[in-house]
Write a structure and sequence with these properties.
8-stranded antiparallel β-barrel; alpha+beta; 11 strands; single chain; two-stranded antiparallel ribbon
Length: 333
């Protein structure tokens, strides 16, 4: 029997359906039901309710280049304004307002040859920015697609991921684009991505009509874009819906010889939503979510990987302006 769960997410089945959509936001309800071992009618009813309510949003994100994490210090009272400006950029993946040394953190995507212009020209032009820290991502350890909050078994994850046309193998992190400057998308592909950005589960028939191509062509083009890592389908949720309202950003510095051990431990934790190996003094950046502050405290004082860490700086997330390439609902109106 499920324990009572506050809010509009009713029970563990709702949360497991959400986790399934995080693996493949375009998975059919039949495939989700089969993987979870639940009646299809029940999965259809619950999944449709979650999507119609806006609690779970499915969207597409075009990969625009290599990932770079930006930490920003803002003038007093300007953190929300700066974070909003970053979030509204089409090359922004996520943007969060923080406590601590840095007022906000964002991940941007741009080809390496455009990074100098971004750092030296575009960002200084945003009102309210006092200082920035630029951390190119060398490797994604975990992204939203790999985070299931510990709600699915390995067999369920494999069953769902097997039908996903993606470059990454089941259970592995999203690959970085193989090269910068892979070329602009065609007009039809841009229309396809724009349609999916609004509704990641729109049918191939709807995509075909928007793009002015046949349904078979729309299906083939989307499959090719996903396999090539040019487009990623994301299920975006607030962690609070899964009973994890306390979010924190961890900046981890590890003993160089033990970075692999720490990385593996973070990737295995159900509390780590996102983790990247970055340049700079601290090699690892992790976005985490917990049921309460006590659980966060335990994670930061009792985890085995802490023996290999030189330092761990913690910033609490005060607000999220963008997740998984999708603006917060209040910014979309």
């Amino acid at each position: 029997m499920d324990a009572p769960h506050p809010g509009p997410v009713a029970d563990s089945l709702d949360r497991r359906i959400i986790s399934a959509l995080q693996i493949d936001g375009r998975a059919s309800w039949h495939r989700v039901a089969t993987a979870l071992g639940e009646p299809e009618r029940t999965v259809v009813r619950r999944g449709t309710r979650l999507l119609d309510s806006g609690l779970v949003r499915i969207g597409a994100m075009a990969v625009r280049g290599r990932s770079t994490v930006l930490a920003v210090r803002c003038a007093p009272g300007r953190a929300r304004v700066v974070a909003t400006a970053l979030a509204r950029r089409p090359d922004c993946v996520f943007a969060h307002v923080l406590t601590g040394t840095w007022d906000c953190v964002a991940e941007m995507q741009c080809p390496r040859d455009r990074l100098p212009g971004l750092v030296m020209d575009e960002l200084p032009g945003l009102p309210g920015i006092v200082r920035t820290l630029t951390l190119p991502v060398l490797r994604h350890v975990r992204t939203i697609r790999e985070w299931h909050a510990g709600l699915l078994t390995e067999a369920e994850i494999t069953a769902l991921a097997d039908g996903t046309p993606a470059t990454a193998a089941p259970g592995s992190a999203d690959l970085l684009p193989p090269v910068d400057g892979a070329g602009e998308l065609s007009r039809a592909d841009r229309l396809l991505v724009n349609a999916l950005a609004e509704d990641g589960r729109c049918t191939y028939d709807e995509l075909a009509r928007v793009c002015g191509v046949s349904e078979a062509t729309a299906r083939r083009r989307l499959g090719a874009l996903r396999r090539g890592g040019r487009v990623r389908i994301r299920a975006v949720i607030e962690p609070a819906l899964l009973g994890l309202p306390v979010e924190a950003v961890l900046w981890v510095r590890a003993v160089p010889a033990a970075v692999g051990t720490v990385t593996a431990a973070l990737a295995e934790s159900p509390h780590v939503r996102y983790a990247s190996f970055v340049t700079g003094e601290r090699q690892l950046l992790a976005l985490t979510a917990f049921p309460d502050e006590a659980a966060l405290h335990d994670f930061l004082t009792r985890s085995a990987w802490l023996r290999e860490a030189v330092s761990v700086d913690v910033s609490m997330v005060l607000g999220s302006l963008k997740r998984g390439g999708m603006l917060a609902p209040r910014l979309r109106s």
